[in-house]
Amino acid sequence: MTLSVKRSISEIASLPEPVTIVPQIPTHRLYKRIRRNACKSNGTLTSILAYVNMLEDTTSNEALQILLKITDSMHFDESEFPEAIRKLVEHFQREPESAVRVKILSLFADLATETTIDGQQLIDEVIKLLKVEKSAKVISQGLIVLEKIGKSFTPSVAYMNQMVFFAKVKLFSPSHNVQRHAILLLGVFVLVSDAEKESLELIGKYTDSPDARVRAQAFRSMLTLGERGVQLPPALYPRACASLTDDYECVRREALNMVFELGVRHPEEMIKVQDSEQEVRLIDDAFGKVCSAICDLSMNIRTLAAELLGGMTMVSDEFLHQTLDKKLMSNMRKKRSLHERSAAHFASGEWSSGKKWADDAPKEVISADSVSLMASGACGALVQGLEDEFLEVRTASVNSMCKLALKNSLFAVTSLDFLVDMFNDEIEEVRLRAIYSLTAISRHIILREDQLETMLSSLEDYSVEVREGLHLMLGACKVSTKACLMLVVQKVLDVLLKYPEDRLSTFGCMQRVGQKHPEICMSITPLLLQDHPFFDSAERDVEDPAYVCVLIMLFNAAQHLPAMLSLFPETTIKHYAYLRDTMPNFVPRLAVGGDTKELNLVGSTGSRQFLETLLSNIQRAYSAPQARQALLKAAQDDLDRLAEIDPAFSGTANFTSVFFGAQLQMEQLQLAATGHSIKAPVKECLLQLIKKCLMLQNLFSNLTIDDQLLVKQMCLRASALNLVLIVKDRSQSALGPCQLLLHIASDTSSFLQENTLLIADTFTSAILSKLASVGDPKPGRVYREILPIVQTAAPVVIPQINTNIKMCKARIIEPTESSYSADNVIKVTAGLIAAVPFVAELENLQQSQRQDLRLKIKYPDQNVHIIVPRKRDLKKVMTEQGESESQWRLRTKVLLSHGIWTEASTVEITICLSVKPNNELELCKPVKVHFAPKPVKRGL
Known about the structure:
alpha+beta, Immunoglobulin-like, 6-stranded mixed beta sheet, 4-stranded antiparallel beta sheet, 39 helices
């Protein structure tokens, strides 16, 4: 795409993402007009036929360069495609160089994936060319191209059969590459009914191919067929097991996947043990085979085997527990009765000669040569994985142990000691996985004192994530005795003195410990509160974090055991009232004096009814502009307050409030477009409107299609107003706003074409119709066409109530304004750097928005620095149920630096989303820290 088009797209970010419009306008029409104008000015060819015609009378090297240019462009008039394809086919047939023919086939695949070219025509042409092709390299590329073309659209059964028949023919090629890609094509396109009859068996024969790549692809294609719904028969199991000892890693990997898949699909199928008449379940034997792969020479195979073990949850208990014991259990061997042993001895014809001591002793006493039902490699397989030298294998083993323990409580108890041992691993990631795994299986286990000592020793880890993970784990687990609980409390409080920044995490840990151990907490309450039965104790400092931790634990225990309240001294009751007001998220409501009733907001009733009443009142006032505007202004304050007091309706209330704010700005600007004067400056109003449109587009998720349509129509109105007012102002170029409007209109039209049930409002329909009829979309011409529509536009439709809307927002935990107040100034030599720890929690941040996260630093001289945080500093918040889906934590350091100041001043730090260059959306209020760069001290 040319530079002018890229510039217009970057300018588009100033408004909400386009999403709505009338299905009358072709999606690509406006784009092509912009592109055509840009191409004329740059002299660039825009016709694919112009490129293809250049292939005539050229050498192979020149033809290759032209084909590369076509691939780089990929924006052509689609009406020229049939003729261009015909000429490319002709050049393919006369081209002597195989590399050029490969490139032509590759170009067909690019056209199929990036344009709307007819894929069935391409399939016919490619198969026709490959039927007479002799080069194995070209045929192999042709099979790859057929796969890409087939995946770019949904081919009919006839075309799928055509590709499958061609692939079966090419299976007999002497080239391993051709065979491999033919098998790949069969796995993707063969019909399910045909695969179960003959194709699966045909592909299975190539697992014995002399080439390792073909063997691996055969297994991979069978697995692909299984994903498509083909029933993989247990008869494939012996073939897969035989390939587990293949010399090539790629074959062993696919065979291992096949063993796992067959074991999971047919767990109760009985198979015979090798060299024995005994039968075992298929899932048990497959589990043993996967366990054996943990001893593979390749790290990748060991990692895969460790990962697959976690998915085999239907394995028998004896096989499962064997993975934690390196000694083969006696009950895993086949035993014969005395009669069977005597009969076998008599049949052998051998008698004791008396020359060797005890040569006629019972066999089970002197030897264990009976048949093993489990491969010896399965013994201690998970232990082997936990002791592996590579962290990938150890991490996968911990994850699999956690998955198996979640399904088997007895295994969870057995694996506890092994997971605790992993707390001492040298790699932080492995320690974290062990901590989170133990947290996940906490409901199955009760910690002993010796296990607690190992866990608590890790609390002094230098990594804050490990310490917070241990706080989470200690809060999730249960301990067995009073001594254990005292050990936990004492260690947590000791570590808090060493790491005071862990205050909030420690509070949460003690809160959950109190909730899970109310009876034990009651028995140690006098000891923790230092309450003497006869003498009054000195009042403790309620600002002491250690004392606050103890109170949080006891208050949460008292919530489940109200009898504890009688053990609290009078000073503790007073401290409860203070803590209940200052940190209500950690201190529960207790029946301590006064009214114990708690006000509960029910979002499904009260808040929804209020919102419905508010919207209906605004709807009734739509015919009166002044009343409507007054109601909209008042509604914004009410909605902002509703978002604060009712978290369940926070996203919905914020979305409606921002929408109303954008509507008010738009009505003011509409008056300016008709020639009336308004109170606020036009440029300022435009900037506010643009910001609100960006917020609607980027900060809210879970929007319905109707909500998206409203946002798109708001964008279109804003871009139209932007163009009209800029042309009227005549102080800046209108080319960018014009291209912005064309882009949004095209995308909105595309959105409406995809969602045919949606109906655009009159303004949107009129704008799209006018833009579709404009032959030369220059700013002046577009301005004259849309001006009457903009001036007479009706008010925007009110959004419907959608309680699923979530708003992306942040909360800065550190630094706080109290921690860096005027009494605690950050002092640094001017020109040098001060690193300020920064911790923030983000809610409802989309995965695609992670790269747009920014830190914004504003100095008193109005200089603004935008910092891109490191990706590794942003991680999902861990909970007892696993990773949170919508909560993230950003933990980094903000670097402050400046010239000399005469006195300390405040620096504002906030977190925002960069949705457009030089345009960031703040996710929370900035925190102010006092910063004082001092002059350099010079010696004598």
